[in-house]
């Protein structure tokens, strides 16, 4: 259940609200549905898409924006669609990646209208946790095709990522492939990370954001949400975006409550009788 609206929670109502004082000149400033977008059926009946329609769009005016909501709300679908709309591969990777292992992405990417900033990113990447194995396979294939003297794998730390653990390959991506002045769209990057790994990624995101990078991240991780100066947008049960403070974000509230008294929560969750 989402926390009730209160201190630390501000409803996001306007499509073209002025950016806050001191906000950076980001690469992607705003996203909305285009005039030809559908009105019913998948993906247009997802809560996240209905929220885009009801508010006229979503401002992405910070170097780091987190999207938070329940499973099934459509956060991942929105990040994937944004990746497609800015020219990235639906299964993940950089603009040069054009492989597809399944035609499973939604049509939402073609229906989005993206307002871009004045700057162009020096690099960009879409990390989709569930299909990163396929991205790694494509990196290995490109590395073999380039032949002696060239190294695609070198851009990811120099060790074939299939020879690394899942979490190590994620960290290699953040450390070696992500750079200042880049645009990075991430779908649940915490999926492969230990708590220590999530903290390392938090520090890397913060460092790159201070050096001109922009991140849009769908996540359930209370650790990642602690990135300083990030904007946390939470989709509430009524289908509206709210800008929330860290302490009011649903993953933080629920995790703290559980850790404070696991026995009570287990008694509520488990039926041993």
TrEMBL record:
InterPro entries for the chain: AAA+_ATPase, ATPase_AAA_core, P-loop_NTPase, Rad50/SbcC_AAA, Siderophore_ABC-ATPase
Disordered: annotated segments: 1-24
Keywords: Cell membrane, Ion transport, Iron, Iron transport, Membrane, Transport
Signal peptide: none
SMART domains for the chain: AAA
One matching Pfam family: AAA_23
Topology within the bilayer: Peripheral membrane protein
Localization in the cell: Cell membrane
Residue ranges occupied by any AAA+ ATPase domain in the UniProt entry: 61-239
Main location as per UniProt: membrane
Protein's UniProt name: AAA family ATPase
């Amino acid at each position: 259940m989402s926390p009730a609206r209160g201190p630390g929670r501000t409803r996001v109502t306007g499509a073209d609200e002025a950016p806050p004082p001191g906000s950076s000149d980001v690469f992607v400033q705003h996203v909305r549905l285009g005039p030809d977008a559908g009105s019913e059926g998948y993906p247009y009946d997802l809560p996240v898409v209905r929220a885009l329609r009801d508010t006229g769009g979503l401002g992405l005016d910070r170097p780091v924006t987190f999207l938070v909501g329940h499973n099934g709300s459509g956060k991942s679908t929105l990040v994937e669609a944004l990746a497609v709309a800015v020219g990235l591969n639906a299964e993940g990777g950089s603009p040069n990646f054009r492989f597809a292992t399944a035609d499973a992405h939604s049509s939402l990417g073609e229906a989005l209208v993206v307002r871009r900033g004045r700057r162009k990113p020096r690099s960009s990447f879409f990390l989709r946790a569930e299909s990163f194995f396929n991205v790694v396979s494509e990196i290995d294939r490109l590395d073999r095709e380039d032949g002696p003297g060239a190294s695609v794998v070198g851009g990811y730390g120099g060790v074939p990522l299939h020879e690394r653990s899942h979490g190590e390959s994620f960290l290699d991506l953040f450390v070696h492939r992500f750079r200042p002045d880049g645009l990075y769209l991430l779908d649940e990057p915490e999926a492969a990370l230990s708590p220590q790994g999530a903290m390392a990624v938090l520090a890397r995101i913060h460092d790159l954001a201070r050096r001109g990078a922009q991140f849009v991240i769908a996540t359930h991780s209370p650790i990642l949400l602690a990135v300083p100066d990030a904007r946390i947008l939470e989709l509430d049960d009524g289908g509206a975006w709210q800008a929330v403070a860290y302490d009011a974000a649903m993953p933080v509230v629920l995790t703290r409550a559980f850790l404070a008294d696991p026995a009570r929560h287990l008694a509520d969750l488990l039926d041993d009788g």
